[in-house]
Specification:
Blueprint lengths: L1 E4 L11 E2 L2 E10 L8 E6 L5 E5 L3 E9 L5 E11 L15 E6 L5 E5 L4 E5 L11 E3 L14 E6 L5 E9 L5 E6 L4 E6 L6 E7 L5 E9 L3 E9 L9 E2 L2 E7 L7 E9 L2 E8 L9 E9 L4
Parallel strand pairs: 15-19
Antiparallel strand pairs: 1-3, 2-3, 3-23, 4-5, 5-6, 6-7, 8-9, 9-10, 10-11, 12-13, 13-14, 14-15, 16-17, 17-18, 18-20, 21-22, 22-23
Length: 298
């Protein structure tokens, strides 16, 4: 696995301010391993490693090497392995399309899948890759989502509830269905992306606010991405959520098919990583960008 530095703004390579965020690092990830690619979910484990899932049913993880300012320098000790089913067999067919990854308070991971809509729980490191999946109860209405438009956003709030956002399960008013899932109940809410955009992931901050990643695609592979901030006070059953835009990447900036977002809290603020899904296509790239969201912003 290799990391190649890129310029997020090719016309201004020295640029570091993007919306409300400060760019810390930007890389293109490359590998000759045929299993690498299609990264659709991202999280930082309790062991400090960066974890990702692919839409062909693989785990990836790596140790992050940082400089004194917290900027990513390299990813070391790469590991890749098939995700396992509840019976410890590798996921396959319609069961392998993993789309969202979230770390829970006990260090275990939750993975949301499309194709066959479900959330599975996997053990905390170092047992993650070897653990059998455990089924997590989800609202029955999720089964009405399009096969390729289900749970794209998944995060665990500080109080332990799950926030689930769908990509294409649309309401009559043009918003998209989501849920707050507790131990014994689930309350429906909705999310309103920018026109033409759809949710691709979300991640909770330590104060309960949530970052939402949105993507827009138009023909001829023109991609746009935006990141919004949803305040914790609005996260209630029945709410219609619409976040404040923090970041927008459009050509000629490094706009790609970003589908994963992870947050790591530091003394400087929230360290944010976003990763793109190359769809195993030679015409797309796996990009990993790292930003800082200062505490003064959120």
């Amino acid at each position: 696995m290799e990391l190649a530095p890129i310029d997020v703004d090719p016309k201004r390579p020295e640029r570091r301010n993007f919306g409300s965020l400060t760019l810390l690092s930007a890389f293109r990830l490359e590998s000759k391993d045929q299993r690498f690619g299609g990264l659709s979910g991202l999280a930082v484990g309790m062991d400090g490693r960066l974890y990702a899932i692919s839409d062909r049913g693989h785990w990836l993880s790596a140790k992050m090497q940082m400089d004194s300012n917290g900027a990513l320098l390299d990813l070391l000790d790469w590991q890749i392995a098939p995700m396992l089913t509840t019976t410890r067999t590798p996921v396959s067919g319609r069961f392998r399309d993993a789309e969202a990854l979230a770390r829970t308070r006990d260090g275990s991971f939750l993975v949301a899948f499309e194709g066959v809509h479900r959330i599975w729980r996997y053990g905390a490191p170092p047992k993650t890759f070897d653990s059998a999946a455990e089924t997590v109860q989800i609202p029955a209405a999720i089964m009405r989502a399009p096969s390729n438009g289900g749970m794209e956003g998944l995060t665990v709030l500080p109080d332990g509830r799950l926030l689930v956002l769908t990509e294409q399960l649309e309401n009559p008013d043009g918003s998209f269905k989501g849920w707050l899932v507790g131990d014994a109940n689930a309350g429906e809410l909705s999310y309103v992306p920018a026109p033409g955009f759809h949710v691709t992931d979300c991640a909770a901050l330590i104060n309960g606010d949530v970052l939402v990643l949105e993507r827009r695609y138009v023909p001829f592979a023109i991609l746009s991405v935006r990141m919004t901030l949803v305040k914790s006070a609005g996260l209630q059953p029945g709410a219609k959520l619409a976040g404040k835009e923090l970041l927008r990447l459009e050509q000629p900036l490094a706009a790609e098919n970003y589908e994963g977002i992870a947050v790591q809290q530091t003394s400087q603020g929230a360290m944010i990583f976003i990763v793109s899904d190359d769809n195993f296509s030679p015409f797309q790239q796996t990009l990993l960008l790292q930003f800082l969201l200062p505490d003064t912003v959120n």
